[in-house]
Specification:
9 strands, AcylCo_DH/oxidase_C, AcylCo_DH-like_C, flavoprotein, about 425 residues, Butyryl-CoA Dehydrogenase, subunit A, domain 3, two-stranded antiparallel ribbon, single chain, seven-stranded mixed beta sheet, Acyl-CoA dehydrogenase, flavin adenine dinucleotide binding
Length: about 425
């Protein structure tokens, strides 16, 4: 693997970092400059989004050129995600380009791709993926999932249900509890169960918001205000089937999207961890205690060195996942763990000011905790990756002891303990 970036990839990173530095990254210690943008109606700064889309073509990086995209790939989008993670600026980039656009590209009919992807590429259309309840990580096959998509609803009750309306369209019923940027997205991709209980299957549907009938969207007060979430309720809402094939393998497409999304999230986490470490290093260089900088103490140097190694190892994993999204889940686990550790140490090393809730250091900690709740936890990401890779073969069945031997009990003079070999036969 050649880990060196091309001049074009390096330019994407440099240009985006410069643009985000003017668009409201974390301000000086003790102040959060993105709070107003996150609390705004859409959950992000529309002016910044317009600059990133119009001048840089950010949401269209991985889209085909015939749809108005840049024709790049996952690597370029991951580099962009690393920079947005570094700045922790609220943007609808991940929900639109990381989740919705790949599904439209994979499953959508040509007429749907031609109608929707150009708007995504130029930033005029944002999109969100709606899955029932709180099953996002399961739907993306990051921590579970199955080939039938039973997380979408059992066909009798719960989840999101779809039925034909008799006029070539569909009607949706149900709700999704945690939809990233769901309150402001102009297009919703809804995973719904259809076909009844015995012949049910999961399909994806398009709902054009906010004019859809029977659609209600409520923004939650989320732990991480830079990644807005909403509850989406569907009550006899008209929808359009994504693609022309009702037999499409939607769970497989969602799993493929999940691998790419994991690579993007890993890059985001690395950017956030690196920024938290940089801010902490800058602080301990300036903070004076006992007549000298806090960073000059050997114990502090050791802690910072350990954090640096963690960030660099996580960055290597994230870059490898960007090159090979099949390793996205493992990279995400390592990067989330690194971000959680660095964010916690950042609060500690900032001392008394770091423990105040309004300090910018808490934004990194909130991002780490929120991402683990949404896409993890870390041990389940690793367990799922190991299961998918077939690392753990099923245990061999232990042959049952003969019934006669069990009935005889201990022989005379042998005592009350088990006979030789009995513990091995029992798997002890």
């Amino acid at each position: 693997m050649d880990a060196a970036f091309t001049p074009e990839q390096s330019e994407i990173r440099r240009t985006l970092r410069a643009a985000l530095s003017k668009g409201g990254p974390p301000g000086p210690p003790g102040r959060d400059d993105t709070a107003s943008a996150a609390a705004a109606g859409p959950g992000y700064d529309p002016g910044l989004w317009a600059r990133l889309t119009g001048g840089l073509g950010l949401p269209g990086l991985a889209l085909d050129e015939k749809y108005g995209g840049a024709g790049c790939g996952v690597t370029e989008l991951a580099l962009a995600s690393e920079e947005t993670g570094r700045a922790l600026v609220p943007l609808p980039l991940f929900a639109t380009s990381g989740l919705a656009a790949p599904l439209i590209t994979a499953l959508g009919a040509e007429r749907q791709r031609a109608a929707l992807l150009p708007g995504i590429a130029d930033g005029t259309l944002t999109a969100a993926l709606c899955v029932p309840g709180t099953a996002l990580a399961t739907a993306l096959a990051l921590t579970g999932g199955d080939a039938h998509g039973t997380w979408a609803g059992g066909g009798r009750a719960g989840g999101i249900q779809a039925r034909p309306d008799g006029h070539g369209g569909w009607r949706l019923y149900g709700e999704a509890e945690q939809v990233l940027d769901g309150h402001s997205a102009g297009l919703l991709l809804v995973a719904a169960h259809t076909g009844g209980f015995t012949r049910g299957r999961t399909l994806l549907f398009l709902v054009r918001a906010p004019d859809a009938d029977g659609l209600r969207r409520t923004r939650w007060t989320a732990l991480d205000e830079t990644r807005p979430q909403a509850r989406v309720q569907l009550r006899d809402t008209r929808a359009e089937l994504l693609g022309d094939d009702p037999g499409a393998d939607v769970p497989a497409a969602l799993a493929a999207t999940g691998r790419t999304a994991a690579a993007l999230l890993a890059a985001e986490a690395v950017g956030a961890a690196a920024a938290a470490l940089d801010r902490t290093v800058a602080y301990v260089k300036d903070r004076q205690q006992f007549g000298r900088a806090v960073g000059s103490f050997q114990a502090v140097k050791h802690r910072l060195a350990d954090l640096y190694v963690r960030v660099q190892a996580a960055r290597s994993a994230a870059y490898y996942a960007a090159w090979d999204p099949g390793e996205g889940a493992l990279a995400l686990a390592q990067c989330l763990e690194a971000l959680r550790t660095v964010a916690g140490e950042a609060i500690q090393l900032h001392g008394g000011i770091g423990f105040t809730w309004e300090h910018a250091a808490h934004r990194y900690f909130k991002r780490a905790a929120s991402d683990e709740l949404l896409f993890g936890p870390v041990h389940r990401l690793r367990a799922r990756a190991a299961e998918t890779a077939g690392l753990f073969a099923p245990a061999a069945a232990v042959p049952a002891a003969p019934a006669a031997a069990l009935a005889d009990g201990p022989r005379a003079g042998a005592g009350a303990g088990p006979r030789p070999g009995a513990r091995e036969a029992a798997g002890v």
